[in-house]
Amino acid sequence: MPVTQSLESMKPLVHEQILELQNKIQLLEGDRKAFYESNQWAVKKNRESILQLRQGNKDLHKKLAGLLTGDEKIIKEAFQDRTVEQAAMRNKSREVGGDSHTRGVGGSCCVVTEKETAKDDPWPYEETLR
């Protein structure tokens, strides 16, 4: 009966392999759990970052709206009697940089700077082409 003897001798080997595979499965489950927890933590941090960035965007939009409203008020006061020029200035883009404002598409048209003039000058700015 050599077949039964060989089966009997293989049982311990198979049993050892089963134990080894069970240990590997437990390790893999632990790794999977750690990976899942790590990813959940990363997702939570990313959501917090997104919320902070959205709040920052809201604040910046409010600040921009306030600045544009202020610019509108200044334009309205400066062009009180000049409705055509007021409408034209309202549609121009401006970049603030010190005492000068850039007008035109992408700031490439001209630079408007304050000039030293008499106090009664209705237009206290001068334009220079770039």
Automatic annotation (TrEMBL):
GO terms for biological process: cilium movement; outer dynein arm assembly. It comes from the Eukaryota. InterPro entries: ODAD3 (IPR033192). GO terms for cellular component: ciliary basal body; ciliary rootlet; ciliary tip. This is Uncharacterized protein.
